Amino acid sequence: FFNNERVRFETKIPFFEPFNENTNIIFDNYLIVILIITIQALLTFKLYKHTYYKLFAILSLLTIVSAFIPYVDSIFNGFSAPQKRWHYLLAFATSGLIALYVHYFHTIKVRTYIWTSLFGFILVLISAYMYHKFVIWIVWVPIVFLIGLLSKTHVSSFFYKKGIYCYAISVIILALLVSSVFTKYQIFHQDHEKRANTFYVNASLYNTPVQQDLVQQMNAKKLPEERTDWRVNEQDNTPMYQHFKGLSLYSSIFDQQLIDLYYKNLMINIKEESVSRYQSTGGRANIASLFSVRYAMLKDYQTNLPEFFKPVKASGQYRMYENQQVLPAVRIMDHYYDARYLKTAIDREHAMIDGVVLNRKGEKYKPHASNLLSQVDVQDDAIQHLGRNQIKVQKVGGGYTLSLPQNLQKKFKDFYLVVHIKRGQPDSNHMIDVNGYQNNRLFNASKYRTGQYEQLYRVQPDKEGNIHIGLSPTGNYEFKILGLYGENYQTLENAPKEKIYASYQEGQSKIKVTLKKHKKGMMVLNAPYRKGMKAQVDGHPVTPQRVNYFMIGIPVDAQAKHIEITYRPPWFFTMIILSFIFALLSYLFSKYIYLKINKRKSEAY
To answer: Which residues cross the membrane (predicted)?
Structure first.
């Protein structure tokens, strides 16, 4: 996918996967199980004289072999971590082969049928013996064999006339049995059965009436362009099914600029590491205000609420908070800062609040936030130093404690702690606990790890003025404290909060804004910029720009009133025209082939 950034998979990919219970696709594979009839069909070489049979046999053979080659999985996952996202091709190829095998079944010799069937059945029995596992469809395999054999030997007039139909029905029953076993143990396993019911859908882990009512209240009180920070536990797609403008998503495909924003530019910490999700603001008030987050909702045991969010309502276990320093979704700024000179996440936040961050344009942003690491005392606990940035954690929760002097505690409300951390041996999932905030990180060989080893944590010192970094489990780590930055929120508090627009409408690939009296500058919308966007200012075309790393920027003068932004994917009409042309060519070509074949047939007679 274009513009989809994939994390480079650093773990060595084996050329072949071992043949075991997890990869055996003819018995009880976790992803797909092909019918044993496929093996019989592949070994029936006589039928290869039929063109379509040969085609599906070759496709089946290629896809079966490819199922054991992780590099093929990597190709279908954007040349990243091997992920089996293509096995529908295997299902298609083998299904077509089985259908043709049944179609030509009456032409197969009895001897060929017997030895190919026995070979396939022996493979199934060996698999069951090796894995100490019995599946119900094994019992049906000999019955399918006998029905096929009876139809071949013509022991009765019934089987002579109806044998092929009986065999086809027996194969269909086998397919249903295999599917039911696969569904039971691989799809509706114990964990899924707990959640695949109406009780779970209406429970607090998903979508209760109380949650729906609170979301509706927040939607009614906030402006349509403002956001709500709320997720049901780790349900990142909560905004989609509870219908509000949120801050989280679970998906396999993300726009590159969104990934860069979260991982690199703003370093927003993802509490549960995964390349398939983004979520919230990491408890950072500057980002929440820049994203126009009006409300946040947490359960009573959840923490990491950004500064300036004050409680406005409680209902059961839910707590609703309102942002007292929310910035408008549309702002006009006349200070321009060059992104190249912004080296830390906190400076980028301040620059976006004070003005507009541009790529290779603008002036240097001043002042820069100072690294306070030299002003704090750092002590280790249960740590063995092995070499340059290499440590061994000797007890669960061992790590480092940063003791902050009183002057820093009084000067700043929050601190941004930046660390470099990578799990060593033994490789495993691990957790970084920063004063009670638990960040769960994946093992190095995980297909879902983000590959980001520099993490930023917004933290407040405890009552003793300490920041503790605890690492779990024990073992080796690559670790270094890179920086500590203080935030007093003067930049955010001093930023203008008044709306400079009279109306904001969004829908049908359009954003319409009507401005009030304003100054000349860059109109910034905190909506993602995309290639293919076009803008009109009072009916005159203007080129939108990507500003603030991901937002939409429209240059406007002091007299600008009506702004309309439209979006259409790049090359949209070009692709429609090409699709139409090739569809027409395909039709004409098939017509030509059809007439040519008919002409040959007529000449033959």
So the answer is: 25-45, 52-71, 86-105, 112-128, 134-151, 163-182, 571-590
Residue 94 carries which side chain, given as an amino acid letter?
Answer: T
DSSP 357-401: EESS-SBPP-SPPPP-GGGSEEEEESEEEEETTEEEE-STTEEEE
Gyration radius of the chain's alpha carbons: 31
Q: Against a cut of 0.85, is the pTM above it? A: no
Stated as kind and residue range, the H or E segment containing 416 is strand 414-423
Phi, psi values for residue 308, rounded to 5°: 75, 5
Chain segment 429-474, per-residue pLDDT in tens = 999 999 999 999 999 988 888 889 999 999 999 999 999 999 999 9
Residue 445 phi/psi, 5-degree rounding, is -90, 5
Question: What is the 3 state secondary structure string of 35-69?
Answer: CCHHHHHHHCHHHHHCHHHHHHHHHHHHHHHHCCC
H-helix segments, 420-547: 490-494
- Please choose, from the candidates 231, 313, 320, the residue with its C-alpha nearest in 3D space to the C-alpha of residue 277: 231
DSSP state of 106: G
| Distance between CA atoms of residues 22 and 157, nearest Å | 45
pLDDT tens string 297-344: 999 999 889 999 999 999 989 999 999 999 999 999 999 999 999 999
